[in-house]
Amino acid sequence: MSLISTTDPNFDRMERRLNQVFDHFFTDLGLTRRGGGQQQDQTRISPAVDIYEDDKAWHVHTELPGVKKEDIKLETQGNNVVISGEFNRNKEHNDNNVRYQERRYGAFQRTIPLPDNVEKNNIKANFNNGVLEVCLPKSVEASPKKITIS
């Protein structure tokens, strides 16, 4: 298998054009994507999340592979919960030797708007196997109540 050298000027032009296409796509979605290739250390990464709801709480699961628990910052800001930190590059690899790279490195941040019925003082979080689980409990008055029809 032959890999394309990243010093090839045609590859550089193709990479710039692909970055323009992706930048346009992500901007249309209201997201930002900057960087590519060697500049990825300056990228603000938005990690993938799944959000679930049950009768008692909202559950946010965020993928953070390779991040240590102590390197994750979780806080409420206004009506949002903000997850931030940094994906660190493996020190064993030299940038000059990279031939192909899909993994992203650098600062990450994800802002999740809080529903009005969340008890901000009772938010709990657990980090296991690269997945941050945040439990956003619903307030008691927001719980569904059965109403008897007379």
UniProtKB/TrEMBL annotation:
CDD domains tied to this protein = ACD_sHsps-like
Q: Which organism is it from?
A: Umbelopsis ramanniana AG
- Is this entry keyworded tRNA processing? no
UniProt-recorded name of the protein? SHSP domain-containing protein
Keyword terms: Stress response
Q: What are the SHSP domain coordinates in residue numbering?
A: 40-150
Q: Does the keyword DNA damage apply?
A: no
The record's Gene3D superfamilies line, in alphabetical order, gives: 2.60.40.790
Q: Which domain of life is it from?
A: Eukaryota
Tell me the InterPro entries matching this sequence. A-crystallin/Hsp20_dom, HSP20-like_chaperone, Small_HSP
What does UniProt give as the signal peptide span?
Answer: none
Q: What Pfam families does the record point to? A: HSP20 (PF00011)
Which PANTHER family does this chain map to? Answer: HEAT-SHOCK PROTEIN 20 FAMILY MEMBER (PTHR11527)
Similarity field: Belongs to the small heat shock protein (HSP20) family.
